[in-house]
């Protein structure tokens, strides 16, 4: 029996133990800190695990290096603004239809340029015609778009200044967020997948920064840096539970504080929804992995040249799996924004929504779906807990020093670096001693 097969078997046997250990850590937080803190770690860990599943689908199954996870997650968050929130009627009257018309003009300009490029003969006239279409289309687009946006953003800018949404159920925003991310991924991949892998990385990084810039600056769309708060949620509100006779009576019969219990109940509802989504995703991904399609994807990942020689459409399959992985990241982004109850474009940072997700995939085990879930839970737990633990240790070590001590103040001030330091050390040790991750690919 080969060493890799032994390692894989051992990883599979250790999986229940690892997840039991994670459950014990979260329960320990509940007893030592609070159950609200424990459920916060659980819920955000589950959302992070879904992000890791999306990246694992791209990298673990196809070897595609996506460093634009942040952008796809942000598009999912935007869907929670555009789908469930109520439309702003006055903003639509001020310029809503003009904005849609301007966007249609922009799309028509791009399509017209593409058609002209393909239809006209290859000469200098073709380049001139395409340039004229693009330049003229740009100025016409701006002439219609800019006044409409100014009119929309002038409508109650303190509380709205945007078009709002469609007023649909918030759960519908989750798959729509996946569709938004899938659309952006298709545009990037259609251009970059035929090139070298490093070009794909550059393209995804660029599209992520463009998406965040649009979210920050286009107030008519999602209020920009003014943020959107009070987003609809698929679970009860704490205040409604606290005013509900059945809930208050139940908590009093259990000897629990209804105020604290309402917050815990809401977080448990979210945990149930997130667990259901993860189980559905893993079931679908496991079926795909064990199907002929999954075996073909792994064959392409391991040797693209041989797969192409066997008649496989490598670029087409890469496009397919890249879009699917981005859609899962968009789904996770919509779920996270729903959990937060607000869209804050400035909070999307590459460290949290790209680097950390990659650490989750690598530590959990690239190519293993359960490994991605484990990595998501474990790394998020560390991300939340290492800083307060580091602060506690620093205060304990410096407890004998005077409050005016420069050494004590320096040590306490540097505890903010414990979090990224821990992530780097965990990644370093895993790559050195267990490069296939905690749960290797089977």
List the helices and strands and how they pair.
Blueprint: H1 3-32, H2 35-62, H3 69-82, H4 89-119, H5 124-153, H6 170-192, H7 197-217, H8 219-222, E1 228-229, H9 238-242, H10 245-254, H11 258-289, H12 292-302, H13 304-309, H14 314-340, E2 342-343, H15 350-364, H16 369-397, H17 406-413, H18 418-433
Antiparallel strand pairs: 1-2
Helix pairs in contact: 1-2, 1-16, 2-11, 2-14, 2-15, 2-16, 3-6, 3-7, 3-14, 4-5, 6-7, 6-14, 15-16, 15-18, 16-18
Q: Which class of secondary structure composition applies to the elements? A: mainly alpha
Which residues form runs of ≥5 with pLDDT under 50? Answer: 1-8
How many β-strand stretches? Answer: 2
In angstroms, what is the radius of gyration? 25 Å
Mind summarizing the main beta sheet? 2 strands, antiparallel
Task: Spell the H/E element sequence.
Answer: HHHHHHHHEHHHHHHEHHHH
Beginning-to-end CA distance, first to last residue: 14 Å
């Amino acid at each position: 029996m080969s060493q890799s097969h032994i390692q894989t078997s051992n990883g599979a046997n250790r999986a229940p133990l690892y997840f039991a250990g994670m459950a014990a850590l979260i329960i320990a937080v509940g007893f030592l800190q609070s159950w609200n803190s424990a459920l916060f770690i659980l819920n955000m860990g589950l959302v992070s695990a879904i992000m890791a599943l999306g990246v694992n689908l791209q990298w673990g199954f196809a070897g595609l290096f996506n460093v634009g996870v942040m952008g796809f997650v942000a598009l999912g968050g935007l869907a929670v603004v555009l789908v469930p929130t109520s439309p702003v009627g006055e903003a639509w009257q001020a310029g809503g239809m003009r904005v849609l018309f301007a966007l249609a003009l922009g799309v028509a300009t791009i399509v017209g340029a593409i058609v002209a490029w393909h239809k006209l003969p290859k000469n200098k006239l073709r380049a001139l015609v395409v340039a004229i279409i693009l330049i003229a289309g740009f100025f016409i687009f701006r002439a219609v778009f800019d006044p409409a946006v100014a009119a929309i953003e002038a409508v109650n800018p303190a509380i709205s200044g945007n078009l709002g949404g469609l007023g649909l159920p918030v759960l519908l925003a989750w798959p729509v967020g996946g569709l938004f991310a899938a659309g952006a991924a298709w545009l990037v991949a259609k251009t970059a997948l035929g090139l070298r892998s490093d070009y794909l990385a550059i393209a995804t990084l660029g599209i992520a920064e463009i998406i965040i810039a649009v979210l920050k600056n286009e107030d008519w769309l999602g209020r920009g840096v003014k943020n959107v708060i009070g987003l609809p949620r698929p679970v009860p509100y704490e205040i409604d539970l606290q005013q509900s006779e059945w809930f208050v009576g139940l908590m009093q019969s259990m000897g629990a504080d209804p105020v604290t219990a309402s917050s815990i109940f809401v977080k448990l509802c979210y945990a149930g929804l997130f667990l259901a989504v993860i189980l559905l995703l893993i079931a679908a991904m496991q079926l795909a992995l064990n199907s002929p399609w999954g075996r073909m994807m792994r064959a392409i990942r391991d040797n693209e040249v041989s797969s192409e020689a066997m008649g496989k459409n490598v670029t087409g399959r890469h496009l397919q799996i890249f879009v699917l992985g981005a859609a899962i990241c968009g789904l996770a982004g919509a779920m996270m924004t729903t959990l937060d109850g607000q869209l804050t474009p400035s909070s999307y940072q590459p460290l949290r929504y790209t680097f950390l997700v990659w650490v989750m995939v690598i530590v959990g085990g690239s190519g293993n779906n359960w490994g991605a879930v484990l990595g998501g839970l474990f790394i998020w737990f560390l991300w939340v807990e290492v800083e307060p633990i580091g602060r506690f240790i620093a205060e304990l070590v410096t407890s004998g020093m005077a409050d005016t001590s420069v050494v004590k103040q320096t040590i306490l001030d540097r505890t903010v670096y414990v979090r990224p330091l821990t992530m780097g050390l965990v990644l370093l040790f895993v790559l050195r001693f267990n490069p296939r991750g905690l749960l290797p690919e089977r």
